[in-house]
Amino acid sequence: MSTTTFPPSDPLTWKQADTDVHVATRGGEFAGFVEFDGSAHLVRDNHGAELGVFDSLDDAFRALEDANQPSRRGPVFPSMLPRAWRRRTRRARA
What's the superkingdom here (predicted)? Predict the structure, then answer.
């Protein structure tokens, strides 16, 4: 499994693979595809999971673009630090 990540500014690149199939890539990596079944556009991600069915090709493109947006990461450190990292209170010496 690839763990390659791309900057959000790197857009999806679309190519029409067949009359009813459009394939998306980002930075040379497969990102998903849109298939037209005659009545609707079916969107699948890079793992083949169905993302939805859309009436227009533009809506299908947008859905795959939204699904490929990098997720925002939480804080580097959790709000509660592990016990080993907590500072112990110490009594003052006289």
Answer: Bacteria
pLDDT digits 0-9 by tens, 32-70 = 999 999 999 999 999 999 999 999 999 999 999 988 776
Domain that holds residue 28: 16-67
Structural domains in the chain (count): 1
In a domain, 74, yes or no: no
32 assigned to some structural domain = yes
13/26 Cα distance (integer angstroms): 6
Q: Evaluate whether 3 touches 13 at the Cβ level (below 8 Å).
A: no
Q: Return the DSSP state at 4.
A: -
Count of residues in the chain:
94
